[in-house]
Every structure is written in structure tokens, then in C-alpha cells.
Amino acid sequence: MTIPTVAGRPHMYQGNMEVIDQSVLRTVSTMAVVIALTYCHQRNRAFAPADPTKTFIENVLIMMGYVEERSGLPSPKVVSTLDRLWILYLNHEMTNSTTALLHVVSTLADPISCCIGLVAAANGPLHGGAIHLAYKEFERLGTPASVPAMICDVKAKKTRLFGYGHRIYKAVDPRAKYLWATLDEFEGESRSNPLLSIAMEIDRVASADEYFTGRNLKANANLCGCFVYTVL
User: 0.85 cut: is pTM over it?
Assistant: First the structure.
């Protein structure tokens, strides 16, 4: 759990931009370490220390042990892919979770508390949490052959198709084409992944069905981005 560490010093950040900048960097770095530790723990992998000579993305992969066997370093292709992916998400500007962070910032709260607000908003099923629910649905379906029945349930409003549609982009999410292009670079990996084969079948059926095309419902960038994470 992340908790603020400013008890007894509630005003240490006010009017001190240098301290704020340092704390933001520490907070982002700490969250990267916690994510890497969690990843290693869940997969029974050894955690590796960061290398101060490497980039942030390279160090995230190094700490997770996601490196090439021969070089002991992250794959340049994976690093480049994540670099583009994170820039694309960064350029999305005012997401729900970003707004939540800024609301907390406006109270002059410490950076860690602001990040807690961001993570809490992102966890909701109508934001980042939708991706978790989408993947749970992929697991439930089991095979691409189960997709037509699920699509019928969506059209009958018996279930919801998470990861499709967007509050802002009512026609096409402009980020999606770049993510699909990135996914094409990993065509072999995507075809061999059972969850992605189900996801691709859903997208194929939905893209040809009047119910979805008439409502401009397409896979949003958050879901497409998770497809990229999956093939990595």
C-alpha cells in the first residue's frame, strides 16, 4: 500500500517546487519498483536492481527480469514499442484519472496522495478497470467459437462489451490506428496467443455487424494497447 509520508509536516510542499519535483520523481520511481516486485512475486522470478545508466523503460524491464537471455538486457524492439505506447497514452491529455489527480493536486496535497486519487479513478470499470473485465470475458469464452453467442447477448443487452466505445471519441479513437500498426509488428505472437485470438474474433465480428458499426462502437485505445502488452 502507498501512503503519504508527510505526517507532522503537512506544508512541506507548499511554495517549494524543488521539493515537489523531487517527490514526483521518487513517487514515479517507487511505483515502478513496486510494480516490478509484484510482477516478480506473482511469477516466482528474481527481482533485479535497476541500472542507473539505463532509461526508465529499460529499468522497468530489467527489474521485472524481462530481458534477453544472451545479452541480459531488454529487447530493443520491446523497449521501442513501450516507448511509443507510453508516449501515445501521454498525449491523450485529460483522461478521467488525470482529472482526478489534478483535483487532488488542487487541494495542495502531497504527490503520493495525488497518485492515489489517480489510481483509484483508473480502477473503475468505466475507465482502466474495463480492460480487466474485457480480459475476464475472453477467459470465460475460452475459444473464438464462443464469440457469436456472446455478441448476440451484447445486442440483446444481456451483457456488456467492455473495451469498446469511448466517451470522447464517438467515431474513431485516433490513437487506435497506431496501436493496430504496432500490433501488426507482432503478428506471429498475436496469432499464437489464445486470449488474443478471441479478442481478434470479437473485433472481426463487431466490425462487420450493423449493431456496432451503426453506433460507431470499436475497440478503444486502452483495449488495443493491452493487446500490445499481451504480445510482449
Answer: no
